[in-house]
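Section 5: illustrative case.
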């Protein structure tokens, strides 16, 4: 819209200058410049030629700046998306984070967030961003021991939210001790320890010895 207005205003100015010059001198002229011969054309035409050149040059100038601005905007948008992902990971307790930001505006905050965990107040329900709001909802649901779909977050079993959710599932009976102890890499040390404490109370000696690598003094309590 601004370019359209600029073009219309430029054309009006060129026409006004051409009309004014033509009303003063409607003759024609030819000349040589830098070894080039320019044909015999109205004086008004030669007067507006620099104006047309300036108009085209200004369009090129604006185009270059618009292109540079577009690249900067795209870079900011990408950094914004990375920042949102970093904030979500920080909320969910993901420790291995290393987002690389291109713009100076995000580098400082990004470095801080990559080395911190965000613990929001319980009163914070949403922020208007889908990814962050989903993370906040997941945190509330897990804390309230609700059944949740956590796979889409691709969380490691070492994250606090994944540990708490697996403990909830174990308490609800969705997974049993045998399943947990048979796949320790999928549940982590804390969940396995809890499962083993429960397992030794009812399992036979032979079964207990099968998972003896989980044995601790606490499991005898």
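Designed sequence:
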């Amino acid at each position: 819209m601004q370019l359209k207005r600029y073009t219309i205003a430029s054309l009006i100015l060129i026409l006004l200058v051409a009309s004014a010059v033509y009303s003063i001198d409607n003759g024609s002229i030819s000349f040589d410049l830098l070894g080039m011969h320019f044909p015999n054309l109205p004086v008004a035409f030669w007067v507006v030629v620099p104006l047309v050149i300036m108009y085209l040059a200004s369009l090129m100038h604006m185009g270059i700046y618009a292109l540079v601005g577009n690249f900067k905007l795209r870079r900011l948008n990408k950094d914004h998306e990375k920042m949102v992902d970093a904030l979500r990971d920080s909320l969910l307790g993901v420790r291995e984070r290393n987002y690389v930001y291109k713009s100076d505006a995000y580098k400082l905050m990004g470095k801080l967030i990559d080395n911190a965990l965000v613990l929001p107040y319980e009163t914070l329900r949403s922020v208007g961003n889908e990814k962050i709001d989903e993370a906040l909802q997941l945190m509330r649901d897990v804390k309230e021991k609700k059944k949740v779909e956590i796979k889409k977050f691709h969380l490691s079993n070492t994250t606090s939210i994944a540990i708490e959710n697996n403990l909830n599932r174990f308490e609800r009976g969705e997974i049993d001790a045998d399943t947990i102890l048979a796949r320790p890499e999928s549940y982590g040390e804390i969940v396995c320890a809890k499962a083993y404490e429960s397992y030794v109370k009812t399992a036979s000696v032979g079964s207990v010895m099968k998972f003896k690598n989980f044995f601790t003094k606490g499991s005898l309590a």
